Amino acid sequence: MKFTVIAQKGMARAGILELPHGTIETPVFMPVGTLATVKAMLPHEMEELGARIILNNAFHLYLRPGADIVAKAGGVHQFQNWKRPILTDSGGFQVFSLAKLRKVTDEGVNFQSPIDGSKHLFTPESVIALEEKLGPDIAMVLDDVVRNPSTYDEAARAMRRSVAWAGRAAKVRTRDNQAVFGIVQGGLHPDLRRESAQATVDIGFDGYAIGGLSVGESPEEMYPMIEVCTDALPVAQPRYLMGVGTPRDLREGVARGVDMFDCVLPTRLARHGVAITDEGNLNLTNARFKRDFSTPDPTCNCQTCQNFTRGYIHHLCKCGEILAARLLTYHNLYFYQALMRQLRADIIANRTTTVKESQ
Amino acid sequence: MKFTVIAQKGMARAGILELPHGTIETPVFMPVGTLATVKAMLPHEMEELGARIILNNAFHLYLRPGADIVAKAGGVHQFQNWKRPILTDSGGFQVFSLAKLRKVTDEGVNFQSPIDGSKHLFTPESVIALEEKLGPDIAMVLDDVVRNPSTYDEAARAMRRSVAWAGRAAKVRTRDNQAVFGIVQGGLHPDLRRESAQATVDIGFDGYAIGGLSVGESPEEMYPMIEVCTDALPVAQPRYLMGVGTPRDLREGVARGVDMFDCVLPTRLARHGVAITDEGNLNLTNARFKRDFSTPDPTCNCQTCQNFTRGYIHHLCKCGEILAARLLTYHNLYFYQALMRQLRADIIANRTTTVKESQ
To answer: For residue B327, what is the nearest residue in chain A, using CA coordinates?
Structure first.
């Protein structure tokens, strides 16, 4: 993996990230393909709308279909026929948010499958082994996540455990051609965030993520915390803000030196009938769109906006038709890619961002 | 509308059907897009896999979004952005199979909406007016359908009512550029089928459908009944076997002189995880496909079979992912289009069909 910062504007950076399956321009938004599919989308459509890297989830693929199956298929790229880079999330956040009867010890995390109740143990070592089987370009270490707001002691305990786990993960990794990113934790406590960043950087990873944000706090609490982290992280390596966020969050994160983002928001909102636009979110299930045969987003050049109307998509939503999810997922992901391209171009041109602040 | 038979082999015919939105080679299979969307598919994909005409359903579009909305959008073609021909089914069969508290009188059919219980009346005249608002290339008349087997008296009553309704429909049509097809009924009673064909032809339509089949009877009962109908219909006009069927049904129908078919089978089976192949139906939800990374149908050239594996689609099915429906719908419709192209080529070459008889 190679990362090159090619332009800076304040704390914001534009870069080039070279990975085994391709080169990515940063700042970048990574669409979420939890179960080895960006929901409702084909790989060639993801390429067409400009996605250069997608995220898969190691926790979900561990449960279904299982790492052995993915490995037998030839790894995550071959399994889903996606030729560009992939990052796998470790499952730290998913165990925290989805698993039943979760019990965290220093060894790792015991949990029951949300699918069949079966019992499992994730350790920092087992998760690295899992991700090496899956074969993404970038693997995330296992971390211990707490919801915000947390007490200082809760956040400190989880952060120090995450650091200890990161150290164990770093020791057992075996693949030269798979990048591994550490994760900064520490809740909403600046000194814990700084301690976490320093300790994680001391272990040494290919890149650094900021975890444990957008889990209960307001944007006004989140943004300063991002800055505390990026301030404490090395300039020469990529910074990834996990699970964030809205178009506004992306703008604010980029302005604070974040290079990579992922979030289910554009794909999940699409499946609920919402088009994300410069003018805000349009909930196309709303009856006021029934007779509206204008384009979903008049400023958008995507296939959905070029070919279909609000009234037609409203009809598809009301009838529960799969095509509604397809058309809106395509638009929302295109919108996010266009937003990131614009933010990058603004950094390179060293100009105040022209991206609207409506969201 | 213009129909030209260009080749015959026994009773089978190859033809050219010219319609306002394009020219179709027959025999043809029309994918079903009930609610103005072939479920899970985009129009450009339907063109790519070779569909030349699709079916919409007037009954469903009357209920959602309503004919006025479709008319405001510019008609069914503009509403769904499908540029090729469309046939609308009248709703006779849907009222029969889906509506609640259906009551048929000589005037028409009273029914309650399966969506909200609201009360409606369809008459032969109101359905023609509805279809003229929707604006397909071909409109079907309202008919009275009975399930097979029916008593002679039931079938005779419904058939004679269908003939009377067809006469009323023919009187009120106003559009020169919209073909209208009559429908032959008569259950499994050959003399009723002949009487129906004769009476419907006497009224005079642009083409003739065979209705009331594949509604409870076996293939062995259906096939002779198809032949009774095609024998009694004019050679110079298209014949459409409604709601049928399996690949075998298509072969047997073509051999008996049918030119047009529609059926939900390939799209519905796809959404249940089934790939239709020359070797029979593969239920990819079956656990035996979990570790099978071969192509779904080794003899198929479709995008699904060229790019994805049985094991991956199995995984998508088990996880309830939308992409499973997309990939299998694409394959199944491609399979049907390829089958029809092959049957047509065999007629033109005057050779025994090379289509496999596994289904």
So the answer is: A42
Whole-model pTM?
0.97
Same domain, B195 and B217: yes
DSSP state of A117: -
- Residue A2 pLDDT exceeds 60: yes
User: What integer pLDDT is reported at residue B357 of this predicted model?
Assistant: 63
* Phi/psi at A215 (5° precision): -125, 55
Domain boundary among A263, A296, A312: A263
- The confidence score (pLDDT) of residue A303 equals 98
For A19, A70, B62, B117, B316, the CA distances from B289, given in Å and listed in that order, are 32, 13, 41, 43, 12
Q: Number of Cβ pairs closer than 8 Å across A and B?
A: 98
pLDDT digits (tens, 9 = 90+) for B43-94: 999 999 999 999 999 999 999 999 999 999 999 999 999 999 999 999 888 8
**Residue B107 belongs to what domain range?**
2-263
Mean pLDDT of chain A: 96
Asked if the C-beta of B309 comes within 8 angstroms of chain A's C-beta atoms, the answer is yes
**Which of B39, B73, B309 lies at the smallest CB-CB distance from A312?**
B73
- Among B118, B122, B158, CA closest to B142: B122
Q: Report the C-alpha gap between B74 and B78 in whole angstroms.
A: 6
Q: How far apart are the first and last CA of chain B?
A: 34
Q: Of A38, A42, A54, which to mutate for an interface test with B (greatest number of B Cβ within 10 Å)?
A: A42
Whether residues A257 and A274 share a domain: the answer is no
Residue numbers of chain B with a pLDDT score lower than 70: 354, 356-359
Judged by CB atoms closer than 8 Å, whether chains meet at A72 and B39 is answered as no
Q: Measuring CA to CA, how many Å separate A170 from each of A127, A141, A182? A: 11, 8, 9
- Over residues B301-329, the pLDDT tens digits come to 999 999 999 999 999 999 999 999 999 99
A314 contacts in chain B (CB < 8 Å): 65
Sign, CA dihedral A230-A232-A235-A236, equals negative
Token pair in block for residue B145: 């359908």
